[in-house]
Amino acid sequence: xxxxxxxxxxxxxxxxGQPMMFAHGYGCDQNMWxxxxxxFEDEFKVVVFDHIGAGGSDLAAYxxxxxxxxxxxxxxxxxxCRELDLTDVVFVGHSVSSMIGVLAAVAAPxxxxxxxxxGPSPRYIDDDAYRGGFTEQDITELLDSLExxxxxxxxxxxxxxxxxxxxxxxxxxLTASFCRTDPAIASRFARVTFLSDNRADLHRVTIPTxxxxxxSDVIAPQSVGAYVHEAIPGSTLVQLxxxxxxxxLSAPDETSEAIAxxxxx
Length: 265
Description:
alpha/beta, 11 helices, Rossmann fold, seven-stranded mixed sheet
């Protein structure tokens, strides 16, 4: 199937503008960028898409071998860039898509100009002095719960991941997004996401990179954002006032302003 159809690729904005690609996080789809991406359409060619298994992607394109690591998802990003003949791309990745973007930029550096990593984590499990925010037992229990009752897990975890308990509608939206994702694919993607270790890939990034760190983020705590910043040569770290793990929904103004300040310099 055509790459565009497979990933439900949508292109808006300035046809001859610099490409700006937005990639969604786990359990989400391109709709999660609806408050941010349009703000760049006057200046950039804006590209959004769905990872296989999410949103309007082609579920039949899911291949267990290809997607047994994040590199399969990174290959998809590069495939989209090649299909559209995109170069000088500003890649904006949320959560796990931050590391997918890192891998894509390392694999095809000629395609990318800048990276924006929103709530990134190269490893979720603590390892000696490294603090990813979870013990190995935490992740084992999380994956067991997810695989035994995905819908129940989604209802319980989405509001925690979102944060902003005073705005329950945000947690409800993330819950609904999780529940729209194919459960079998979501379970496998969760295992790949939470068991990956991409720390060694960070120093291989050679393009300007912005790390956006949220406050009170249970998925990617401040220690992780600091680690990513220190590991990527010349990167910029911005601490957002936004709380939770999804500032593209909870604080689109602050998130957009931080991205704009970086990409327009």
